[in-house]
């Protein structure tokens, strides 16, 4: 095997190890966002239910206030009955009292109806609040675990990566750059074996000429299809 390809193969083993250590970490931001979205939906649900309770409470208070105003109005009109000068005025006041009473009773009924709805509204709100608390606890636990995993993995990656510079000595920078580009674009397999004249990266056949060059071991051969840097396994060399 070409000595530089041998070095690249060792480098690739190390880079694959780093990549596998990183894989779980790479998934964390998306997982965090997903969980945050669930939590946010729960919070919005609780806020909407909270508003529904508040709206109903305000409506009940306003209706009760209007009922009280109706009562005052009726009292005032009742008082006027004693001071009216003639029967027509008396009858008119009675009608007015009747009308105010009707409106007052209607509002009273509406307030009672709303009060009946308040209990289930409050129960739904409390349930939604509890769901938020539960989800927040789950999210906090996830974040703590994610932090612990990140710290542990970063330390492990740093340890493994510390030796990477040694693997680069004796390799031309342009070859390293080519390798790194392939490593990124070819699913972490930049240097790959040829078995039975077939590139094990893309499973296309390579030419007899390339096989001969690989056997020669003095030139760096790339796959004509996927551009991966090739080597022959010892038993094929
Ligand atoms: Zn290939």
Helix content: over 70%
**Low-pLDDT segments, ≥5 res:** none
Mean pLDDT over the residues: 95
Strand order of the largest sheet: 2-1-3
Largest sheet: 3 strands, mixed
Q: How far apart are the first and last residues' alpha carbons, in Å?
A: 8 Å
Secondary-structure element sequence? HHHHEEHE
Rg, Å, rounded: 40 Å
* Strand residue percentage: under 5%
Structural class: mainly alpha
Task: Please state the overall shape, judged from the principal axes of the Cα atoms.
Answer: rod-shaped
What small-molecule ligands were found?
Answer: zinc ion
Separate helix tally: 5
Number of strands: 3
General description of the model:
By secondary structure, the protein is mainly α. The protein is built from 5 helices and 3 strands. It has helices at 3-81, 87-162, 164-168, 173-185, 208-216, and strands spanning 191-195, 198-199, 229-232. Strand 1 (191-195) and strand 2 form a beta hairpin. The longest helix is centred in the first third of the chain and has 79 residues, at 3-81. The protein binds zinc ion. Residues 199, 201-202, 204, 223, 225-226, 228 line the site of zinc ion.
């Amino acid at each position: 095997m070409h000595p530089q390809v041998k070095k690249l193969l060792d480098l690739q083993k190390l880079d694959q190890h780093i990549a596998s250590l990183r894989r779980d970490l790479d998934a964390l931001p998306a997982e965090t966002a997903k969980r945050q979205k669930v939590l946010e939906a729960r919070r919005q649900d609780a806020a909407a239910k909270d508003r529904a309770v508040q709206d109903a409470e305000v409506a009940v208070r306003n209706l009760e206030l209007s009922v009280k105003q109706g009562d005052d109005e009726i009292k005032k009109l009742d008082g006027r009955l004693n001071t009216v000068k003639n029967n027509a005025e008396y009858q008119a006041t009675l009608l007015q009292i009747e009308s105010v009473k009707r409106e007052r009773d209607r509002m009273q009924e509406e307030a009672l109806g709303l009060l009946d709805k308040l209990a289930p509204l409050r129960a739904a709100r409390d349930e939604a609040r509890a769901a938020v608390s539960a989800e927040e606890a789950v999210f906090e636990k996830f974040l703590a675990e994610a932090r612990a995993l990140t710290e542990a993995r970063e330390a492990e990656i740093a340890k493994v990566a510390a030796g990477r510079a040694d693997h680069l000595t004796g390799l031309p920078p342009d070859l390293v750059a080519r390798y790194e580009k392939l490593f990124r674009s070819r699913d972490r397999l930049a240097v790959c074996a040829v078995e039975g004249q077939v590139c094990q990266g893309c499973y296309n056949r390579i030419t007899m000429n390339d096989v001969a060059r690989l056997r020669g071991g003095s030139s760096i051969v790339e796959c004509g299809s996927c551009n991966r840097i090739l080597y022959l396994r010892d038993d094929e060399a």
